[in-house]
Amino acid sequence: MISKILFILSFTIFTFSFAQEKKNEKPKFNQELATSLGADQYGMKPYTIVMLTTGTAKIEDKTKMGSLMKGHMENIGRLANEGKIVVAGPFLEKNKENYRGMFIFNTKSKEEAEQWVKTDPAVQAGVFSYEVFPWYGSAALPLYLKHHDEISKENP
After folding, report:
1. Which of 80, 97, 128, 154 could cysteine-pair with 52, CB 3.0–4.6 Å?
2. Residue 53 pairs with which residues in a beta bridge?
C-alpha cells in the first residue's frame, strides 16, 4: 500500500515538474507573426489610449439616452471589426478624474484616434468627452479580440 502511494506521489511530482518545465520554455520567435502585428524587437508597438470622461450634456430622456448608448456600442463594434479598436470598456468604479471608459486604438496617431472617437454618437451628443494619450504595449494585444466571441454568450 505504501509503495503504491509513493508511486502515485512520485508520478504526480514528475507530472507537475514536467508541466512546469514546459511552462518555463520560451516559445519560438515567429518573425512572420511579429511583422504582421507591427512588433518591434521587443514585441511591442505604439497605440493610442482614449479615456472617455463625463461629458457636459445632461440628457434626461431615457429613450434618447438608450438610443445614444446603443449607437455607442454599435460604433465600438464597428471600429473593432475594422481593426481600429483593440480594447474598449467601462470603468467599474467612479473616480476623481470622471473617467467613464477607455479605448485602446490600433494607431500611434493621436489625430487618427481622435477622428475615430468622434464617430461615437455619445461623444457627438456630449454624453462623453475624452482625453487622448500615446501608449506603448504588446503588439499581440489585438489577438485577444478573435477569442472574445468564443467566451461571450451575449453582447451588451
Report:
1. 128
2. 99, 129
Report CA-CA distances (Å) from 61 to 57, 66, 67.
12, 9, 10
pTM equals 0.77
Compute the CA torsion angle 37, 39, 42, 47 (nearest 10 deg): -90
Count CB neighbours of 54 within 10 A: 14
Cell numbers standing for residue 68: 445614444
Phi, psi (rounded to 5 degrees) for 65: -65, -40
pLDDT digits (tens, 9 = 90+) for 68-108: 999 999 999 999 999 999 999 999 998 888 999 999 999 99
3-state helix, strand, coil in the chain (%, to 5): 45, 20, 30
Work out the burial of residue 114: count CB atoms within 10 Å of its CB; fewer than 13 is exposed, 13-18 middle, 19 or more buried. Answer: middle
Q: Domain coordinates of the chain in residue numbers?
A: 2-34, 40-151
**Which residues are registered as beta bridge partners of 49?**
104, 133
Specify whether the CB–CB gap between 129 and 50 falls below 8 A. no
Domain boundaries 40-151, CATH class: alpha beta
